[in-house]
Write a structure and sequence with these properties.
It is a single chain. The protein has about 180 residues and is mostly beta strands. It is about 0% helix and about 25% strand. The protein has no helices and 16 strands. Strands 2-4-6-8-10-12 form a 6-stranded parallel beta sheet, with no helix packed on it. Strand 14 and strand 15 (about 165-170) form a beta hairpin. The chain is globular, with a radius of gyration of 16 Å.
């Protein structure tokens, strides 16, 4: 909970951003992650409420559970091609998130991953995604999901696009870009 830290450059050679290492750094606005990092750990940037954007290097293969949870000022993020897994609650409460790109290499999106991302208007789910956890897009009431799959694959849980008041996010199946 380093409340006065505003920016950080992680040195080359670091391979993993550990559990809760920057959690609660509410003044953190920018961070530079080197190409040596392959994993963003659980809770790594949780509650970094001033973080507006982040460049994740191509070397990263996993975004951990709660990694960017409640980064309420985060507006956009590009997930690199090497990422195969987006953890549970990874972007929960990122209420300003307007844009996210999920690359073809992602195979799983965890439960509650994008819960309460109220500003997110559209997202493309590539064919490579074989698992989407329950409530992954919970309360994303204005979200339109463009799914490359022609129908819900077996590994997508029943309430993956559920929102409160017994509604579901709109899904366009068989999307091609």
């Amino acid at each position: 909970y380093c409340t006065s830290l505003t920016s950080i450059v992680i040195p080359d050679g670091v391979t993993s951003i550990g559990y809760s290492v920057f959690a609660g750094c509410s003044s953190l606005t920018s961070i530079v992650i080197p190409n040596s990092v392959t994993r963003i750990g659980d809770h790594a940037f949780e509650y970094c409420s001033s973080l507006t954007s982040i460049d994740i290097p191509d070397s990263v293969t996993r975004i951990g559970d709660h990694a960017f949870e409640y980064c309420s000022s985060l507006t956009s993020i590009v997930i690199p091609d090497g990422v195969t897994s987006i953890g549970e609650w990874a972007f929960q409460g990122c209420e300003s998130l307007k844009s996210i790109v999920i690359p073809d290499g992602v195979t799983s999106i965890g439960e509650w991953a994008f819960e309460d991302c109220e500003s997110l208007k559209s997202i493309v789910i590539p064919n490579s995604v074989t698992i989407i956890g329950n409530w992954a897009f919970y309360n994303c009431t204005s979200l339109i999901i463009y799914a490359e799959a022609s129908s819900k694959p077996a590994g997508w849980y029943s309430d993956w696009n559920y929102s409160e008041n017994n509604t579901y996010c709109k899904v366009v199946w068989g999307y091609t870009s």
